[in-house]
Design a protein that fits this description.
The protein is α/β, with parallel strands linked by helices. The chain folds into two domains: 1-96, Spore Coat Polysaccharide Biosynthesis Protein SpsA, Chain A; 98-275, no CATH class. It is built from ten helices and nine strands. The chain has helices at 20-28, 48-58, 74-84, 103-113, 163-168, 182-192, 211-215, 219-235, 245-258, 261-273; strands at 7-13, 35-41, 63-67, 89-92, 98-99, 119-128, 131-136, 160-162, 197-208. Strands 1, 2, 3, 4, 5, 6, 7, 8 and 9 form a nine-stranded mixed beta sheet that branches. Strand 2 (35-41), helix 2 and strand 3 form a beta-alpha-beta unit. The longest helix has 17 residues, at 219-235. The chain is globular and about 55 Å long. The protein starts with 6 loop residues before the first strand and ends with a helix.
Amino acid sequence: MRSRPMVSVIMGIYNCEGTLSEAIESIIGQTFIDWELIMCDDGSSDNTYQIALQYSKQFPDKIFVIRNANNRGLNYTLNCCLEKARGIYIARMDGDDISLPERLEKEVQFLNTHSEYAIVSSQMIYFDEHGDWGIRNVIEIPQIKDFVFHTPFHCHAPCMIREEAYRSVGGYTVDERLLRFEDCNLWYKLYAKGYRGYNMQEALYKMRDDRNAYKRRNPKIRMRGLYVQCIGFRMVHMPLKYYPCLLLELFKCVVISLMPERIYMIIHKCNILSK
């Protein structure tokens, strides 16, 4: 029987054959070595699953691959990974991103020495085909009121969470209305149950943000974000004075949905660079 690792890295993968090897190699190259990587292929139509299998054969004691019979969405897929995870801490990773070499080491060290926190995340570096172009700054110690204007206030992909906290809220809620915003819903569930998080004020992760990312932000998906906020406000008993802010979010969803791609990308990058 395999010994329990300190960290289980969970990765939902879908049609990412061009970036998956780089993402996996960034975990293999971590300075912290007591980890396992669990990937679940969500019905890819390219060579994503085959690439993942090659790595599992190369590292049979460290890398494990499972597969959905058909495309089910990231929330369902991550729950499949959680079912297999044995780590004391659960770390996230996406199949088109890069974890910087000291990411796991620094996050483990933080959770080991700060029992008051169940979540730790970090800043992120944004990059595209032209290279790095910005850094996502984050609130160091978010409070529930920060949900109003800073959702999500933990970057999901670089996060590490105590295993018992993940399981106490049932992992990710499987609901089509939450897709692309399953992370925001998770933060609401965790904070509603009394768990708290911390954001390290350094970038430990690189997130790919290019034209493909823009195409995944269609009007229907943006409205899901508003829905997540509406139910989240009730979860954390947000004071009534903050509810009118949801109307502002609705207005922003409409404006952004009508905005041409080129204009959106300019504003999006300027918004990141200004923070």
